[in-house]
Amino acid sequence: MGDNARKYKPSTVRRLDTLSCNECANPECNRKLIAKDGETIVSKICHIEAASPNGPRYNSDMNDDERRDFNNLILLCDECHSVVDNNETKYTVSLLKEWKRNHEDKCRQGKLIKNPKLINQAVNAIASIEFEEKLDDASLNTFDITKKIEYNSIKEYKYTIEEYSKYYGKLNSLYGELEMQGSFKKEKLLRIIRNLYLKIKGEFVNGQANDLEIIQNNADKILKIVEDRLWQIIDKNQSNTDDIYIALPIIIVDAFMRCKILEEPRQL
Question: Which stretches of 4-157 are DSSP H helices?
Fold first, then answer.
């Protein structure tokens, strides 16, 4: 136990590197993760919840795939990594998740400000993927974010959805430009995401009558699986995915707003 939790997927390491902006995730640290020679890596991959039972913040309910998952890993400099793991009382799971979220958001937003076309590149990359199966039609209705979050009982992803929903206007404008150019990338992109969700929903519900209750009890897990499987598809079909790591959460939140992911609030 523990060895498999340290067998990181190359795509996970690339994603961590891209969203680190070459800086330690500790907000009180300004150390770079690559040494002055521009080659030597001085970063450490830190498990938020430990890889093995004798490690800090160990969670016995997790499996090794969850322990090595992107969401359980944070990039720190060598010194901060040692400090964090030597004082698990001070450096809690919730604190490290907050560091990770804030640092990656800061990095992502900084890169988007410098290069807004990263969103365009992500849309084009996903829409260029070819699927053998028929994709369902995708309507473009949008719904009140707060109502939909409450309706689906979303907890962990609530912050992410609220944070990236502000890009809805920019993405909608991009869709409008694509339509004027005669492009159907918007519809295909949303169909791809919708079909991913429906497959995952089927795996959870599996013919049971209380489908809404099942979705509500697993909403955060379902969102994570949708995101992970989309990463897998992109990694398989795209040779350069680093820029897509920056923009993909915005597209996922947009798809959530358009009810391509999770359930539409029913009228009472």
Answer: 10-18, 64-67, 78-85, 93-114, 117-127, 145-151
The CA-atom distances, in angstroms, between 249 and each of 36, 117, 228 are 32, 15, 11
As a whole number of angstroms, the distance between CA 252 and CA 168 comes to 11
| Digit-coded pLDDT (tens) for 72-102 | 999 999 999 999 999 999 999 999 999 999 9
Residue-level pLDDT at 56:
96
Does 4 have pLDDT greater than 60? yes
What's the confidence (pLDDT) of residue 143? Answer: 63
Beta bridge partners of 23: 32
Contact present, 49 and 59 (Cβ < 8 Å) = yes
How many degrees, rounded to 5, is the angle at CA 186 between CA 184 and CA 187? 70
193 closest CA partner among 227, 163, 219, 224: 227
Phi-psi region of 50 (alpha: psi -120 to 50; beta: other; left: phi over 0): beta
Question: 40-67 pLDDT, tens per residue?
Answer: 888 899 999 999 999 999 999 999 999 9
HEC string of 182-217? CCCHHHHHHHHHHHHHHHHHHHHHCCCCCHHHHHHH
Average pLDDT of the chain?
85
Q: Where are the domains of the chain?
A: 4-106, 115-257
User: With b meaning 16 or more CB within 10 Å and e meaning fewer, what string describes 216-246?
Assistant: bebbbebbbbbbbebbeebbeebeebebbbb
Question: pLDDT tens across 157-178, in order?
Answer: 888 888 888 887 778 787 777 7
Alpha carbon dihedral 125, 128, 133, 139, in 10-degree steps, equals 80
